[in-house]
Hints:
By secondary structure, the chain is an all-alpha fold. The protein is built from ten helices and no strands.
Amino acid sequence: xxxxxxxxxxxxxxxxxxxxxxxxxxxxxxxxxxxxxxxxxxxxxxxxxxxxxxxxxxxxxxxxxxxxxxxxxxxxxxxxxxxxxxxxxxxxxxxxxxxxxxxxxxxxxxxxxxxxxxxxxxxxxxxxxxxxxxxxxxxxxxxxxxxxxxxxxxxxxxxxxxxxxxxxxxxxxxxxxxxxxxxxxxxxxxxxxxxxxxxxxxxxxxxxxxxxxxxxxxxxxxxxxxxxxxxxx
Length: 233
């Protein structure tokens, strides 16, 4: 029988959920903008932008964490400015873990939103334009509602990806109990401890259930997008 979570383990779970939620909230507007320009705009260097957006998906996570250190560390280009001007430090903080998780979730989120935007029937937008609707009204009343299932799918996928983020996080913000020790880091730490198997088992089961639920919900939303696209056409 699996023992209930201890107070310290509840802290790990709560921190993981907080980091994942903040990561998704932080990256969602950026991901929507990137998905929109990649699906609707034509400009020089579009292929390069597309490649950069998806780079965290294929780059070793440790390299991503190292790049975050170079940019957001105490002596980094952005990190030194944040520290001196705003008094904000991301290094060894849960906010830094949220930033790392957000970066790693961007490719999946952009992909889900982009597919949803590309599935929108352009004839609906053209018809609204011929009736005198402004671009903003077309976006708010037609484009955004039709893309909403993809946005929701991106939120779910981003949450699941953030929940499982390990490499970039531990490289960037290290393992600080109560501050940056999320579920994957806690599992790794427990594996290094004598008799840490029960902790690993509890955290692994929680991670599997949360990830499985997120993936199932994402699949439901993706199928809804497909049905919606067939219905419009």
